[in-house]
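QA checklist item 7 of 12: single-chain prediction sanity check.
[x] sequence parsed
[x] length recorded as 305
[x] structure emitted
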Amino acid sequence: MIVICNNSITLPFGRTPKCRDWILSTPLLLVGVHATFGEEGSGKRSYSLSNPTPDSFLREMTTDRPDITEVPFTVDAGRVQIETTGVGFSRSRPAANGAVTQGYEFIGSNIRVGLTKDLEATIMVLPYARQRTRSSESETTESGTGAVVLRAKYNLWGNDTFGKSDSTALAVLPYISLPTDRQNGISPQFVDGGLQTFFAADLGHQFSLGINVGLHAVKNADPNARHIEATGSMTLGYQWSEKFTTYVEAAVRGGTQDPLGDIVLFGGGLAYKVNSNLQLDAGVNFGATPASPSINPFVGLSARF
């Protein structure tokens, strides 16, 4: 949701993909592109991690949750924003043998740190998750920490001009995912990564549109080979008031090489802004394919410091 929202650790999409070295240099290559766009807000360029943006110059808080579709806006320089899934639940569709997997996520957090006016660094952590697979013949339980994901979001335009001189915004984000425990069934087994783009459009009449597209290099079952997976999502947000926003969304992950096929999700949710630095949210996703979870509800909050 572009008005004030999105999802941090994305339980329905499961594993995170694998990165190549060229991905990490992408934001530096795009700095020159950014210079061609509007300069409104250029007075904020003097602020940095060591010289935080004053309260009077802060842009409206936007979050990368509760929806899967993330926003193209970054956290102001020198500020920290923590976005957390308090509790998330996911239940799979029955497998061929009747087995069903249920999973819980606790305190999965996206910690965003503003480095410059248009660049932020992010670390995503999943302190604890638990999943149980049960069939008529057996039951297994796995639990532990998830991956640590390092990300860098660079806004190309619209950070300070969205809804003013610009009705659109765009950002790019490379990431790399690091395993924490290769044997716990929660963390991925390999170093993964990818590159995503985030687009937002102000549609007027309190409506906003968000579109995300990503490419991910993922390890095959054969550890010496990789394949490319693609993700895409679209969210339509509506701002009922300055504090209350809702959204509906569709998301897909293709090329997974899963025998059950690709992941397709539909969902919706809401966000309530308690004040300018605190937001509460809740949402639910529904799977539309055999590889997708049948249901994935969650609640969370976001706070800016």
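[x] summary fact logged: Residues 2-39 have pLDDT under 50 and may be disordered.
[ ] second reviewer sign-off
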